[in-house]
Amino acid sequence: MYTKTPPMGWNSWNTFGPQPTDSLVRETADAMVSLGYLDAGYDYVIIDDGWMLPDRDENGLFVADPEKFPYGIRALADYVHSKGLKFGIYSCAGTRTCARYPGSFDHDFSDARQFAQWHVDYLKYDFCNFPSTANCRQRYQTMSMALRACGRDIYFAACNWGLHSPELWMRSAGVNSYRSTGDIMDNFTSAATIAQSQLDLLHCSAAPCFNDMDMLTVGMFGKGHVGLNDSGESVDVARLEQEYVTQFALWACMGSALIIGADIRAMSPSMRSLLQNKELIAINQDEECRSPYMVSREGARFCFLKHLSDHTVALVYANLSDEQDEVDCIFADFGLPYTSGIKLKLHDILSGEEAGMFTDHCPLEIPAHGCRVFKASFVTA
Ligand code: GLA
User: Fold this and answer.
1) Predicted confidence band of residue 227 (pLDDT cuts 50, 70, 90)
2) Residues having CB within 6 Å of any atom of ligand 1
3) Which of 86, 88, 194, 312 could form a disulfide with 46 if both were Cys (CB 3.0 to 4.6 A apart)?
């Protein structure tokens, strides 16, 4: 499948774990339309692990769990399509999925055909219970062949958790996005660790094969399957909101897949407007899909820019450390010396305010776990 920009959508795992159901997916699809997510660009609805019975049928085919999906998968996919959305499903390159349901090992071609018959549009392909004698690259290549031969255009989302340097070969294996890290948890350390682990690996992420930094935890506030933190402290909503802003801004500006993991039906208004921030989404979906250019980096404090197709740049400041600190961005470090006579006009995307004109550099105090994102346009003095 040819995909020009990172995928956007919703996946059941982060909040519902191995308990996706027909009614949950229908209600989520309804909410994605009525609450503006589809209009904002989120068009995939994806059921993760736990949708099938523990055993295949006598013909070796998957059987959807009839209690969770009483009308079958095809009827559900049809419903999702009737809303203008696309339907995604989950399987695994190993013999069993991570929740120990049947995997696609040795079943790739018949599974892909079954998905095509069900009108599936997206396959997340996991890596649990992988035989030690099997070859990772070949397994993803095999499912890629199976999807190409199945008679339907199906987006291929590989999920081998960043093992074996996927950024180097997933593109050649026909994949559309590759999970580049282990599983995200609903706490800032997890999101910050994932973001920092990818800062040097983004040059390989471009159409039609994108880095997937895992489903967002934005808006979960500890509710769901991937835990808030293990300290047992009560939820500090203001702090978590700030941390979710940082997470979403980084995922968007680093060009990651944007797959929401929170319960769309119960999202707070502020998190909904964050997830639907048009300017952040436009940076993520920019048609040139350029990877970030690192301007400065000192431990967990960094500043990068991303060239955009309208001849502006996104300027991103992040402080993932636990202390407020200054992050400086010296324009000469990204090719704009004082002698150029060019000023940068900065529009603050998160506050919506105009931040003014800058020459030479723009140092900013960034709170702990915080970030600032500017759209910068060039002004000739
Ligand atoms: C792995 C994946 C997760 C999720 C679970 C399902 O851990 O990385 O994203 O799909 O399996 O069991």
Assistant:
1) confident
2) 13, 48-49, 97-99, 126, 159, 161, 183
3) 88
d(CA 163, CA 256): 17
One-letter amino acid of 374: F
β-bridge mates for residue 364, sequence order: 327
Rounded to two decimals, what is the model's pTM?
0.97
Q: Helices (H) and strands (E) in the chain — how many of each?
A: 11, 16
Distance of alpha carbon 7 from alpha carbon 257, whole angstroms: 5
Domain ranges, ordered by start, for the chain: 8-284, 293-380
Q: Which one, of 192, 266, 189, lies nearest residue 228 by Cα?
A: 189
Q: Is the separation of the CB atoms in 319 and 366 below 8 Å?
A: yes
For residue 37, give the H/E element and its range. Answer: helix 37-40
In this structure, how many other beta carbons lie within 10 angstroms of the beta carbon of residue 322?
A: 12
Homologous superfamily of domain range 8-284? Aldolase class I (3.20.20.70)
Q: CA dist 263 to 68, 225, 228, 260, 272, Å? A: 18, 11, 15, 8, 11
DSSP three-state, residue 343: strand
Mean predicted confidence (pLDDT) in 218-242: 84
Residues recorded for the chain: 381
Q: What's the maximum distance between 2 C-alpha atoms anywhere in the chain?
A: 75
Catalytic residue among 30, 183, 325, 348: 183
**Percent of the chain with pLDDT strictly greater than 90:** 96
Nearest Cα residue to atom 1 of ligand 1: 98
Assess whether 348 carries a catalytic annotation.
Answer: no
* pLDDT bucket at 230, cuts 50 / 70 / 90: low
Coil vs helix vs strand at 79? helix
Averaged pLDDT, 197-214 = 95
Tokens 């090992």, residue located = 105
